[in-house]
Amino acid sequence: MKLTFLLQDYNKYKMPNKNYIRGVRFEREIINLFKDNGFTAVRTAGSHSPYDVIVTKESEQSKKICFVFFVQCKIKKKL
Predict the structure, then answer these.
(1) Contact 62, 42 (CB under 8 A)
(2) pLDDT in tens, 2-27
């Protein structure tokens, strides 16, 4: 019984996958790249959708959304 509780605690606090961490870091870099250029960018964390980042741009005159980008981020070791 005590072993079960220890395993539950281990699963709760274990470190995430290194590839997951690299992917999240890359998504955040993409978000910052768009934000630095005047876009609004949001990460779709945990949604398991076909895209990782949603990017929008408002027009300067009417403040309505003109552009919407759906971005899927992939990171590889070698190109």
Answers:
(1) no
(2) 445 455 555 566 667 888 888 899 99
- pLDDT class of 1 with cuts at 50, 70, 90: very low
Residue 58 structure tokens: 């408002």
Q: E strand or H helix at 1, and its extent?
A: none
Q: What is the pTM of this model?
A: 0.70
Cα–Cα distance, 79 to 67 (Å, whole number): 29
Query: Token pair of 57, please?
Result: 């741009």
CB within 8 Å of 50: residues ≥ 6 apart:
70, 72
Residue 78: how many CA atoms within 13 Å on its side-chain side? 0
Sheet with 40-43: strands ordered across:
40-43, 53-58, 65-71
